[in-house]
What we know:
By secondary structure, chain A is mainly alpha-helical. Chain A contains 6 helices and no strands. Chains B and C meet through helix 3, helix 7, helix 8, helix 9 and helix 10 of B and helix 1, helix 2 and strand 9 of C.
Amino acid sequence: MANNRMMIKFFIASESIFFLMLILAYVNFHNSVTTGPTAKSSLDPYVTGIFSLFLLASSFTVWLAGKSLKNRNRSGLKLWLFATIVLGAVFIFGQAREWFGLFGRGITISSNVFGSTFFTLTGFHGFHVCVGLVMLSVLLGLTLAGDFKGPKSDAVECVSLYWHFVDGVWIVVFSVIYLWAFL
Amino acid sequence: MSSRIPIVPESTEPLPGLGENTGLLSWVASIDHKQIGIMYLIGTLIYFVIGGLEALMIRTQLAKPGSELLSPEMYNQLFTMHGTTMIFFVVMPFLIGVGVYLVPLMIGARDMAFPRLNALSFWLFAFGGVLLYYSFFTQSGAPDVGWFAYAPLSEKPFSLNNGPTYWALGLLVSGIGSLISGLNNVVTILTMRTPGMTMRRLPLFVWMMLVTSFLLVFVIPIITSAFVMLLLDRLLGATFFTPAFGGSAILWQHFFWGFGHPEVYILVLPAFGIVSEVIPVFSRKPIYGYEFVAGSTVAIGLLSLGVWAHHMFAVGLGNVANAYFSLASMLIAIPTGIKVLNWVSTMWGGRINFAVPMLFATAFIIEFVVGGLSGVAIASVPIDWVVTDSYFIVAHFHYTIFGGSLFAIFAGVYYWFPKFTGRMMSETLGKWHFWLTVVGFNMTFFIQHFLGVMGMPRRTYTYHDMPYWGSMNLISTIGAFIIALSVLVFIWNIIVSLRKGEPAGDNPWKAWTLEWATTSPPPVYNFKLVPPVRGRRPLWDLAHPDSPDEPDAKIVTEGPNG
Amino acid sequence: MEALAGLTYYTIAISVVILGIIVIAVAYIIIRFRKKSGEEGEPYQDFGSLKLEITWTLIPVAIVAVLFLLTCSTMRAVDPPSADREPDIIIIGHQWWWEIVYPESGVITANEVHLPAGRQLLARLESIDVIHDFWVPELGRKIDLVPGHPNYMWIVAGEPGVYLGACAEFCGAQHANMRIRVIAQTEEEFSEWLTRQARIPETPSTGIAAEGAKIFQEIACMNCHTIAGTPAAARVGPSLTYLATRDTIGAGVLTNTPDNIAKWLKNPAKYKPGSLMPNMKLTDEQVNAIVAYLEALDE
């Protein structure tokens, strides 16, 4: 059905606006931090950069999953869905590691505007990744149960689109938070 | 003729909905767009009465200077809740609800594209409102920081009670409902149209719902993010909008009005749509300049995204920004003016039946023009510097939202009530309702223009006895009670007509859009046969086979999307 | 102000003309095109006219263009740039009163702006807590007092006299009772007033007023209020140094008389519910002593 694919596209458009506002809030306060932690003083671009590569790679694997579906290659679909979930989970692990590292140094959402904007933006992104992981797991479970015989499936295509979106948001977030501070 | 009517393939199994079981469960569990639409309308009527009672208490307090009837805290809660209720729980859900009922019928579809999401939207709206109103029963009372909740007043240091938290949560929930509804409408209108129903033939109400729905999709996330930040500030100690801790009070205003101004058009565009359906039918003429009415809607929708800071001329953004927002706001007057002139031209040369829907639609034109002209005036920065935050603004936006949206809503209720229920509303009671509304409304609000220019600020629970202020406010209060009386008549009319109204038949107004081609009320599956659509007025073409709107149009059996 | 009046009259004129045209057209339609009994069939089906549409698009474009140009020129006339100089007055919004500072002389007062009539002063507007808005209708424009975002405004009163105003941005429970008086004086009167306000008063040493001074320093008054020349220097509440010279108390809720000060001291919330000044539970003697002290400061 064209309905589902159109729906997910408009939904993603709407979500983009949501993230745009969070990013604008971050940008608005980027130069106004006078005391307390800043991106430069508290973040590690290299470690987060490496974890980001896992998320980027997961976009590639979810594309391979879709390709397998098209070719009615069910073992490929299973493999690439599983790989996507693992890669996404590694990214989330990296995010959690970063957050708890910051908490350990006393940097929280209430520290200052950097804390507020940073945790809100990365938090909502992380939440979206988690939702994506749940949906991917459902897809994987259904595949293992014998669903998705190909060559087409709105469910797989919509989740895949959503996953690319979450990935794209991270590229922007990473650029705005990390690259802007350290380049 | 009949042999050429294409049969639209229908799923044979009826969706759960208006079945044999008509108990409460059949409503609660319904995913039928008509039942959901009706529930929206009932819900908004309840909130309308509540919001109206709040307004009456406000006006009673202001009837004389120095009144001590209400405490300042209570008054602030009342005006906050009145604004929030009327905008988010009356006008907006009414228009969404009437759209949910009518859009599938008008485009010849079986239901919305996503019936379950449709039900979700409704219940999010309903429970969002319950969550908001629950605050009245808590120790802290209802939110008391205005429907705009300007930071930092709405922040923890200045609002220690939970009112603003309930406010943000309630609106967050109902806002997500509206967003889902917007998505659902967009997909429904773009993919579910019956064969032959091209975009150029779409009923204008559907056009305006489409533009409104796009606005919902793109601006609800703006306010959702602002609500999230406000809640994080209040609950987790974030500092987005608290200047004392490095945040920005102005950022909240940008976010709020980035949503808030398009929201104004969300409140009024579907109302334009209602009027664009009613005026042609009762004038017995097609809408004048269809392309311009539809096109100007798109123009308004686009422009509305870039004018938010005209609410912030007094904030001190600098004269360059002010000039830009002033120009952009004034430009909106052009497509709006095009609409008004097209409505007037539609009536010109008609054979007009001034039944109640048409009375409200005609009054709408005048009242809305008053609100529109005062809107152009305050788009001019220096004038805004004088009158903003005064009663002039109260008058202005009541002329657009009450004189505009609500008058159109009343027109729509009288127009479609026969379709919704199978019975006509009483014309006599309707005329009483109409005249009481016109008198009460203008009496309440016109004088407030002058109060504002004379220096009476908004949102004050009391005022000093300045020359004329007392008597002018008293006139306004009397007007408000006349409005209250008119609402009683309206509700009485609904009750009486539901029981004893004349049977309506399929098409009592001899209208031309598809919803009138089925029974009143429509069956669960909407249409046995969808008439062929070969022009903008399918039922006109059926009734006047000799002079169809588009003589050269071919019959299409394949939908626009295959 | 003249530019503003011109813009206003022009806008009103255009609005009245447009409204008039629409009302007359609709009234004519109601009379002329109402369905009359005996009329059968449908009227002529008219779908529109491109020429008309273009006409009634272009005419509003022209009106908007003129209105916009007028807006820009008026905006410049009403709100000239502040020229990067120090302000003459600083107006600070508090919940729910106004603190007025004259930086050059160091005078701090409350709820009354004294001005030399006819002289244009540059005001800086700040807020200590939430957003307020300074509005004295007879003096023209209003402007917000935004925390963390100082604004500048030229303020001028042509003729000597008292101009009443109020806070115009909703700022909480007592937004309604946050009133301001602009008192325009002749140059001589103004400089006399300023000199007097700048003088440090003598603390009374005898009688009930001295008793009041003692009470003022002992109980919590000095946690919030200033009296020049004493240890009381807090700026949470209005400076009370020359309270006796002001017209009102409580930002306009009561006229300033010794009786009213006494009433206010006994229970501020009775006259201004929600006021941040607590009820200090003072005895009548304490109240009378404090009132005598505050009055004595102006002698």
